[in-house]
Amino acid sequence: MCCNGRRPLTEPFRPGDWFCYMCGNHNYASKWECAHTYCPTRTRKPGDWDCPRCGNFNYSRNSHCIGRRGKCSHPKVFDPEEERRKEELDAKRRKMLEDLGWPL
């Protein structure tokens, strides 16, 4: 860990970039929500998926992983059990954030 409990930067910090208040992830200025896969603030929609190769979060519209700046390209794999698990996890995250008083 680095100063203030944040992870060390692996890429340059540019104007507009920001740190997530929950997990400390370095996010680019173009991101409106934390891009860290397991951040409790991340909202998921049905069909969103995590790449089994690199762990990158992908939106449902992506048929291939866009992780590692588009270099991963692993195809989307549908697993009903994984989808159920993610929905349960998202419900727990939403409840935790509501209990903390964070707006959703």
Explain what this protein looks like in three dimensions.
By secondary structure, this protein is α+β, with helices and mostly antiparallel strands. The protein folds into 2 domains: 27 residues, no CATH class; 62 residues, no CATH class. It is built from 2 helices and 4 strands; from the N terminus they run ββββαα. The strands form 2 sheets. It has a two-stranded antiparallel sheet with strand order 1-2. The chain has a two-stranded antiparallel sheet with strand order 3-4. Strand 1 and strand 2 form a beta hairpin. The longest helix is centred in the last third of the chain and has 21 residues. It is flat, with a radius of gyration of 15 Å. The N terminus is likely disordered.
